[in-house]
Amino acid sequence: DQQVKQNSPSLSVQEGRISILNCDYTNSMFDYFLWYKKYPAEGPTFLISISSIKDKNEDGRFTVFLNKSAKHLSLHIVPSQPGDSAVYFCAASATLTGGGNKLTFGTGTQLKVEL
Amino acid sequence: DSGVTQTPKHLITATGQRVTLRCSPRSGDLSVYWYQQSLDQGLQFLIQYYNGEERAKGNILERFSAQQFPDLHSELNLSSLELGDSALYFCASSGGTASYNSPLHFGNGTRLTVT
To answer: Least CB-CB distance to B45: which of A41, A44, A104?
Structure first.
C-alpha cells in the first residue's frame, strides 16, 4: 500500500527554467510533509517542509505547495541549476499515538537539469 | 555533512549470517530512526528509538532487531540473512526531543550485500 506516490520516476529540465516535482498521498491523517534531495552514495538531505495548516512554504529557490483537498503537494525549483540534479523524495508524517515520528516516503523522482 | 555517522559503509555477507549496523546520531539528537531502501524502492521505515526506548515501529521483520544505548548510538541487528535483505540501510536522527514535525537528518547509509 503506497501511501505516498511520486508518479514521475524522472524529469528533465533546462538550466534556468522551473522544475516542478509532484507528489500525491492517500492517508488523510498526514499533516506534515517534507522534501528530501539525494545524491548518489549519500543519504537524503532535508530540503523544505510544510505543515497541513499552510498551503505554501518558500525557502530561496524552493517552494512547496500543498493542496489538502486533492491530497497533492508539489516542489517548485526556480531557477533550476545543474547542481539540483538529484533524486527528490517526498515524505509525509502523521501524529502517532504515544509520540513517534514515522516518515513515509515516496519512491523518488530523478531530476536532471541540463545546460 | 549531516552529523549522522553510520558504519560500516559496505558489508558483504552470506545467507544465513548475522550482521550489526551501527549509527551515531547528531550531537544533541535523542531520536534515532532506521530505514531500508531496496533497489528501485523508496525508503521503508523500520523503527524509531527515543532516548533508549522504542517509540515507533514500521515494517521491520522479526529477524531484525534494534536498540539504542545510553550514549544514544544505535545498532540494527539483522539475522538469518536472505538474499532479499540486500539493500541500503539508512540511519537518521532528529530533534532533541521526540518532537513530531522535526526533519530527520540522514547518514550516508550502509550498503548490505547478501550473497
So the answer is: A104
